[in-house]
# Entry
Amino acid sequence: GINAEYGKQWYQRRVREAVVSTQSTGTLKVMCDDVTTIFIDGEEQSAAGTGAWNQLATLSLPENVGAIGIQCRNGGGPYGIMAQLEDSSGEVFEVTDDSWQCSNSPAEDWATASFSGDWSPAAYYEHRNYINDEGAWAGMSPNRKIIWTSSSSDMTVYCRKSFARNTLSVMCDDIANVYVDGEEMESSGNAAWNQMSTFSISTRASVIGVKCRNTGGPYGIMVEMRDPQNEVIMISDDTWTCSNAANDGWSTADFEENWATASYANQGPYSTACTGAWQNMSPVRRIIWTGSGGDTTAYCRKVLQRSRMLMGAQCDRA
# Structure
């Protein structure tokens, strides 16, 4: 169990409703023998079906979920945790298996993506009921595993799964607002042309949107995205589209695209200097805008797929 001092700190966290974002990427389903507490990105969730071994807890997933944490308390007899994550179409993209980590004691921020503790891989257990495809869990993926710590004597376990993140970097001359799947992201570095905004985003993100307001002089947007291995997988180029007006839903995946292809701009320092905040961005990223230099605000969006890398460089790094 949780010691009194730590428990007081942890459970002072605000219990959030099951839907933690107005945007939802899908569904989390959890079985626990016996009583479960579920965390999404470190926040305790409120959901039905968490009070008995034969009840299924179902929660909506927020955009860009970074980590799932499941606390399961066994009241005696069989024990185990089963879970699966489904996308918005109902396709299962994650199940409980030995890529999860488990412990018999919590640690600070254990249910967050930033947790770096050395927990052991989940162990498997053949629960006499959960192994059958019947009950509240009927229809769950046959690939899900029943997980626990390696010790059957542990009466309370904490199991977690974090998800790989991409790194999104944005330059805007002058003031930027950045959206991922319609959700505005918070970051420093978005209020001046020579500052970079950097975001950690889900590898399952589907649309990037950048609003850039030019307050005078040069204008332009530069974007780069790197995968967890630090490989550049997307840049600002003519696979983006731009407009001078923000149509409803413009930064979401279900937006009915009718925008023009992004145009290239010659911003000045962005084009010729490799010594600013952007010096380590891919040399083949392009400076994009609408087709008119007279537009003081540009809205540019990218439906994510592996971007073709343009040959050549914009500046000499020698």
Q: What stands out?
A: The first strand starts at residue 16 and ends at 17. Residues 1-23, 306-318 have pLDDT under 50 and may be disordered. The radius of gyration is 23 Å.
